[in-house]
Amino acid sequence: MIHDFMFLVLGVLSGMCLFCLLRLALGPTAADRLLAVNMLGGIVVSAIAVLSLLLEEAYLLDISFIYALISFLAVVVLAQVYITALRGNIGKRNAHASGEEKASDERY
């Protein structure tokens, strides 16, 4: 009975993984893709924990904790790269706009 429930949970988690992969591929913004990566990491950690219960192997819980830490660090690094790129684009736009104003001031 409990094994059937665990297989059902693994099936639901697999479906959620497919939806996250779809959002990762089709996400209109980088923030959507970053959120999909974060959710995918959480789903994989949950799936490993359920497999640990199903197979009655305690070492899989250690692996899921390690995977959770690596997934968290990956999301933090990706967020930092995204924020840096966003600030760089905004800075370039501001510099470009202020450069045009200076050039127009010099003409008059």
Provide a short characterization of the protein structure.
The chain is mainly α.
What does it look like?
The protein is mostly helical. Helices cover 93% and strands 0% of the residues. It has three helices and no strands. Helix 1 packs antiparallel against helix 2. The longest helix is centred in the last third of the chain and has 49 residues.
Topology readout:
Blueprint: H1 2-26, H2 30-55, H3 59-107
The share of residues in extended strands comes to under 5%
Which consecutive residue ranges, at least 5 long each, have pLDDT under 50?
Answer: none
Overall mean pLDDT: 87
Our count of helices gives 3
Order of helices and strands: HHH
Gyration radius, to the nearest Å? 22 Å
Distance between the termini: 84 Å
Strand segment count: 0
**Helical residue percent band:** over 70%
Shape: elongated
**Content-based structural category:** mainly alpha
Characterize the biggest β-sheet: none
